[in-house]
Design a protein that fits this description.
The structure holds two protein chains of two kinds. Chain A is an all-alpha fold. Chain A has one domain (39-546). Chain A is 73% helix and 2% strand. In chain A, strand 1 (34-39) and strand 2 (42-47) form a beta hairpin. In chain A, 58% of the residues are buried. Chain B is of the alpha/beta class. Helices cover 41% and strands 22% of the residues of chain B. In chain B, helix 1 packs across helix 2 (52-70) and helix 3 crosses helix 4. Classes of the chains: A mainly alpha, B alpha/beta. At the A-B interface, helix 1, helix 10 and helix 17 of A face helix 2, strand 3 and helix 3 of B. Chain B: This is Nucleotide-binding universal stress UspA family protein. Chain B: Residues 1-137 form the UspA domain.
Chain lengths: 550, 138
């Protein structure tokens, strides 16, 4: 006799598709290509080609950069400008295609398809998982660029040829101030609003659709079934998954590098710790060790708890800056920045014939590559919460809610900083750190310095960066481990420890081999092939949706 | 002596469960009590089944086969966890409390130095559960 009480006891179970779906019949079984065994006392369960190719390449990369740092630095220094100046049009066009694709899904009849089957009901509220998604996906970026980017676009990068409000001798040109102020925020909102979230929505939708409605494993290759059929279980699929692993790993390492530099700058600002590579390496090592503890505590006990705490602290910091800073000006800037964004969006997103290459190649192309390389990662988190939603509901939520939060963050931190720069250029620490000398990791602390309780808020800033580092590293390891285990999410923990350790190692060698420009060079080189993968993915999603009842 | 036995099973490695299941069957007959077979699965498609529903069916079938072999009362229980690799131990402790079992019979491997860093699931359960725990080595 067996009882069915187990039915009631599963608090988080996702049942088989409910209602009509178009299940894909395949003989492939999850884990069939995996090799299981043990290395010394450690058990492993890995997807053979994907794990070995990506794992060995990463180890080789780390040793190459450590053995020949001079050569590596030269390569990275050349790679970034080459890629952004050659492929800027591709990144920008791809970004626009993802946004248009998402908008099309909202209006087309396929938007009625329900993820998980026609009768499925939503399993999760968005709140807890959105916390994780922010903490994992954008946390460090928001901390690093919140002050830097709006000020930089306002005064230096001149998006769309908007002239700087500062003359050569550093004096204000009053006639340029209003336009530059609007453009500073609009050009930043463009990088943090609809476009990144459209990229994430595409990957999340692909993972959710092919896992929940088609019954395929939770890995990137599954989305390509409508294009390649059974071949996705062979090398075609291996290559797709390997590209996804590289993109995720280097995207993550870039964030970790930013985080380490910013934490170092903050510690130096508040406690006088020296600001150099040694300290940054120690920071990455120490924080990775904390991330390992979080990995061992699991998803609910580790990263979810940390994310929720961090979201609350970040929200408090946001409110503090809003209230302690020039509240009225910030809110007005927010409104004007949004209007300018809507007005300038066609020009900002135009991939061809642009003169403002400093902005378009130096910033936009880099951002698109970075967001794209993050997409497997953030996509997997969004996919997990999206079962039971219709495609239309899903796309609207994923595009709008996080975009608004990001834009608000940028408007508050950037708006407060821009106000400091313009109202008192001579004494502004932000102007000194961003415009007069370019010292990105210090920008946040320079802005906080002009507000009350600067030493307290700076320490809070440092803690936020460090905890965001931990959550990114932990959840990144989970995602990479899932892909390299052929879609298994219960592979042995030591594998996740391996990835977590090597994320830290890659961040260290990139900082050794050329600092920020090396980080950005690698994220662009791995983001490029994944951009092509994502473009194909849009087509595959559309085919997959058409086969569903709607 | 005992009221109910709990046997954690991983259907992906059913071959390694034989000894533990034999022991549980013998004990159940000896004391005239039932056995609850418990498994932990993720909500996403996995190696054993495409969904927790399908996993539950396989677990029921596994329990029924055990009942036929040993002639004892069986029940089954599936715990769903978003991160089974890291949260298995918590899920098993919860299953133990919910099922009311007071004896756990569980397959475990021979420990080595690595258990200082990654303790075995059986070891963790023994240190956290109120019930008696019998670990069956291969």
């Amino acid at each position: 006799m067996t009882d069915q009480t187990s039915q009631d006891l599963t608090d988080q179970g996702i049942p088989a598709p409910e209602g009509e779906v178009d299940l894909i019949e395949t003989d492939y079984e999850i884990g069939q290509d995996n090799i299981e065994g043990s290395l010394g006392p450690f058990g492993f369960d890995i997807h053979n080609p994907v794990f070995l190719v990506s794992g060995l390449s990463i180890v080789a990369f780390v040793f190459y950069a450590l053995a020949l740092p001079g050569q590596a630095e030269a390569v990275f220094g050349w790679l970034r400008p080459f890629l952004t100046s050659t492929f800027d049009w591709l990144f920008l066009s791809a970004g626009n295609i993802f946004v248009l694709f998402c908008l099309a899904l909202i209006v087309l009849p396929v938007g009625r398809v329900r993820l998980g089957g026609a009768e499925a009901t939503p399993d999760y509220s968005y709140s807890g998982w959105f916390a994780m998604l922010f903490a994992a996906g954008m946390g460090i970026g928001l901390m690093f660029f919140g002050v830097l980017e709006p000020v930089y676009h306002m005064a230096i990068s001149q998006p769309l040829g908007t002239p700087s409000p500062f003359a050569e001798d550093g004096s204000l040109i009053p006639g340029n101030v209003d336009a530059a102020r609007e453009m500073g925020l609009a050009a930043t909102i463009y990088h943090w609003g609809l476009h990144p979230w459209a990229i994430y929505a595409v990957v999340a939708l692909a993972l959710a659709l092919f896992t929940y409605n088609k019954g395929l494993p939770l890995t990137i290759r599954s989305a390509f079934y409508p294009i390649f059929g059974e071949r996705i279980w062979g090398w075609t699929g291996h290559v797709i998954d390997i590209i996804a692993v590289f993109a995720t790993l280097f995207g993550l390492a870039t964030s970790l590098g930013f985080g380490a530099q910013q934490a170092n700058a903050g510690l130096s600002h508040v406690f006088g710790v020296p600001e150099d590579l040694t300290v940054q390496i120690l920071l990455i090592t120490g924080i990775t060790a904390i991330a390992l503890i979080s990995v061992l505590r699991g998803l609910d006990g580790g990263v979810k708890v940390l994310s929720e705490i961090n979201m609350v602290v970040a929200a408090l910091l946001l409110i503090f800056v809003l209230v302690a800073g020039p509240t009225g000006t910030i809110l007005a800037d927010f409104g004007e920045g949004m209007l300018a964004y809507v007005k300038d969006l066609p020009a900002l997103s135009n991939p061809f014939g642009r003169e403002d290459t400093d902005y378009m190649q130096g910033w936009t192309a880099f951002y698109w590559a970075w967001w794209i390389s993050w997409s497997p990662f953030v996509g997997m988190f969004i996919a997990r919460v999206s079962r039971g939603r219709t495609v239309r509901e899903f796309v609207v939520c994923v595009l709008l809610i996080p975009s608004l939060v990001c834009v608000l963050w940028m408007a508050v931190f950037g708006g407060a900083a821009i106000d400091q720069v313009l109202s008192d250029p001579v004494n502004s620490a932000v102007k000194a750190q961003v415009i007069d000398s370019y010292n990105p990791p210090m920008s946040l602390f320079a802005m906080l310095e002009a507000l009350p309780w600067a030493s307290v808020t700076s320490v809070i800033g440092i803690v936020l960066v460090i905890v965001f580092f931990v959550t990114s590293s932990d959840s990144g390891s989970l995602v990479i481990d899932t892909i390299t285990a052929g879609g298994k999410i219960d592979a042995p923990l030591p594998q996740r420890v391996f990835w977590c350790t090597f994320e830290g190692a890659v961040a260290i060698v990139l900082l050794v081999g050329g600092g920020l420009s090396a980080l950005q060079a690698m994220v662009i080189s791995t983001g490029l092939p994944f951009t092509l993968v994502l473009l194909m993915m849009c087509f595959a999603i559309f085919r997959g949706l058409q086969a569903e009842a709607h | 002596m005992f009221k109910q036995i709990l046997v954690p099973v991983d259907l992906a490695h059913a071959g390694r469960l034989t000894r533990a299941c034999e022991v549980a069957g013998d004990l159940a007959r000896h004391y005239g009590i039932g056995v609850t077979y418990v498994a932990v699965a993720a909500p996403q498609p996995g190696e054993v089944a495409q969904s927790p529903e399908a996993y539950r069916e396989k677990l029921d079938a596994f329990a029924a086969a055990e009942a036929e072999r040993h002639g004892h009362r069986v029940s089954s229980r599936l715990m769903v966890s978003p991160d089974p690799a890291a949260e298995l131990d918590e899920a098993l402790v919860r299953a133990l409390e919910e099922s009311g079992a007071d004896l756990v019979v569980m397959a475990s491997h021979v420990p080595g130095w690595v258990e200082h860093v990654f303790p075995s699931h059986g070891g963790r359960l023994a240190s956290h559960a109120k019930a008696s725990v019998l670990l069956v080595r291969p």
